[in-house]
Specification:
heterodimer, A: alpha+beta, nine-stranded antiparallel beta sheet, 26 strands, about 30% strand, B: alpha+beta, Alpha-Beta Plaits, 2 domains, four-stranded antiparallel beta sheet, two-stranded antiparallel sheet, 4 helices, 8 strands, about 20% helix
Chain lengths: ~400, ~150
Amino acid sequence: MDNIPIKKSYEEINARIQKGEAVVVTAEEMVGIVKSEGAKSAFKKVDVVTTGTFGAMCSSGAFINFGHTTPRMKATKVWLNDVEAYGGLAAVDCYLGATQVQEDDPLNRVHPGKFLYGGGHVIEDLIAGKPVRLKAKAYGTDCYPLRDFEKTITIRDLRNAFLYNPRNCYQNYNCAVNCTKKTIYTYMGILRPHMANATYSSAGQLSPLLKDPYYWTIGTGTKIFLAGAPGVVTWQGTQHAPDCLRGENGVPKEGAGTIAVTGDMKQMNARFIRGASITGYGCSLFVGIGIPIPILNEELAYFTGISDEELFCQVIDYGNDYPLGQAKSLAEVSYAQLKTGRIEINGKSIPAAPLSSYPMARTIAQQLKDWVQHQKFTLGIPQAPIPTVTCSINIEQI
Amino acid sequence: MAEKTIVSTNVLLIFNQRIMYKPIIYRLAGDFNIIFNVLEAKILPKQEGRIILELRGAEENLARCVDYLKKEQVQVEVLADKMHRDEERCIHCGACTAVCRTDALAIDRATMEVVFNPEKCVACGLCIVACPVKAMSGIAIDKDIDN
């Protein structure tokens, strides 16, 4: 990121945004522009490309400070609507994880379990402004004597509520099938036996990290759309893996980069966040994320213009290989093929269903475009890069 | 004789334990001139029987046959009315389309939105199981997945 050629600076683009003169297009629109005019011309024309994704992102959660009680308390165990939040932090701080299930949930005792309510649902309810039952327990100290606390609260009563998601926005993901003889219930949905169906979970040509494949413009300090509010990238995400299988166009063809993100829940919109119950698997959270990509050079115009036809993922067996930790690619398919609703594997045509919402991804990219166009959102300049690999693309040869 | 309108509808019939071993359905053909087609059936011995039938026949015969079934204490649920999508909850992710057998839930490829066509639904209930945001509800052939 330090050594990429910058032909149009962040400052220049931000100045244009502030004057309402910036040319902002969605990643879908950029695909059309690059296709018809080429990357060099698109670079001259476009300042910012907006992306979007709306999928289940299990590594999500919220830091909550519920405000000091009277008398004071150092809460060690905390529950919100009977979903436990980790209390091993200072007095009235806790961390509520999206996949934590409600107390007394039967889990998978009767398989497949329903996982009706969990941390993701609490986060959705809080953002929607609904009342939530808060319970806390403590062992009591001289300075924090209170041992039990219970109160019905809404997000307005909380001193702080930040979404802090350690791994979001996966740059590409597997396409899942099931090669066993039995139906399986996975985080990739319900997979019928003998490879009778396939599922996938990426917005493809709208997906943020697929459009900046070497993370040149995405690092600590990049401002993003997070669940309807401005948020930021804080760090690389857990399991960030830039050193992955890449295509000739430089774009990962399997799960690769990830980012950690944060934002203020009090400003978020419940339309762009949704608690999830994934049958047989557990609770999760659908998170809406959009990232504006500044077109600093011709390469970024090229990358943001890459279409579903040129974006690929690997087909993985979630019946045997994946659970055993021995995932191997059964086939490679493009997002264009996946979006027709059928893919071909070893000569067999099978139906393919998405799990992340493309219509919502489109709405997010559009909303972010409106913000940037109407001077409500400027670009954050990344202060610390996230790990990457050397770019193999030479724009002069494209 | 005036031409009668032929209609077709998918129904879920629930037989409680008192009537589940009584022959009832055979009379639909003989007494009401209804063509019935078994789409799915689940029998829980000594508890309950559930069967999904496509009924085809003259409109008035269909109404009379439903009255007859109800008189025999069969619970009759017209499927087109029974499966419901909460439009506020649905996020159009597409997870339901992975399991829908009849394409009652299918993706419009232009918009990538999930379109719900209740007329095609046979109330297998798999969409209720597959939907991660609990947007689908209704009466299904499997007692366990009603919600």
